[in-house]
Amino acid sequence: MEKRVIGIGGIFFKSEDTDALRSWYNKHLGIESESWGGVFEWRRKDNPDDVTYTAWSVFKKETKYLDPSKKDFMVNYQVENLLDLMAALKEEGVTIVGDMEESEFGKFAWILDPEGNKIELWEAPKNIQ
């Protein structure tokens, strides 16, 4: 089987008080973030010249971004060829949520695992990989 996921693209979770929680993570764990979140920079083991990022974001409890999942978190997995992967996942019967989106931040698509956890798949734009 070809490699599909190459890393963790982001960790997103809900909070009752986003400012207080971001402050706690900064004070006790040294995670710096702004209102939208923060990033960890890393290099790929199989290609050390490629610099990429893992996002870390705290969302307001009432966010709809994680819907239709009932969970308070979502993991974003970084992939290399999102278009081909989504075609394969569709053929395999995986539940797809919404339409793929593309922006200056890359390509994004969403699926559900068998337990209803929403998963975000991300192909980074070529300028940051």
Explain this structure to me?
With 129 residues, the chain is an alpha/beta fold. The chain has a domain at 5-15 and 43-50 and 59-128: Roll (2,3-Dihydroxybiphenyl 1,2-Dioxygenase, domain 1). It is 17% helix and 43% strand. It contains two helices and seven strands. It has helices at residues 18-29, 82-91, and strands at 5-15, 38-43, 51-60, 73-79, 95-103, 106-112, 118-123. It has a seven-stranded mixed β-sheet with strand order 2-3-1-4-7-6-5. A hairpin with a 7-residue loop joins strand 2 and strand 3 (51-60). The protein starts with a strand and ends in a 6-residue tail after the last strand. The model has no long low-confidence stretch (mean pLDDT 91). Residues 7-124 form the VOC domain. InterPro entries: Anthracycline_SecMetBiosynth, Glyas_Bleomycin-R_OHBP_Dase, VOC_core. This is VOC family protein.
Descriptors:
globular, alpha/beta, 2 helices, single chain, 2,3-Dihydroxybiphenyl 1,2-Dioxygenase, domain 1
What is the secondary structure topology, with strand pairs?
Elements: E1 5-15, H1 18-29, E2 38-43, E3 51-60, E4 73-79, H2 82-91, E5 95-103, E6 106-112, E7 118-123
Parallel strand pairs: 1-3, 4-7
Antiparallel strand pairs: 1-4, 2-3, 5-6, 6-7
Protein name: VOC family protein
Domain VOC: 7-124
InterPro entries: Anthracycline_SecMetBiosynth (IPR052164), Glyas_Bleomycin-R_OHBP_Dase (IPR029068), VOC_core (IPR037523)
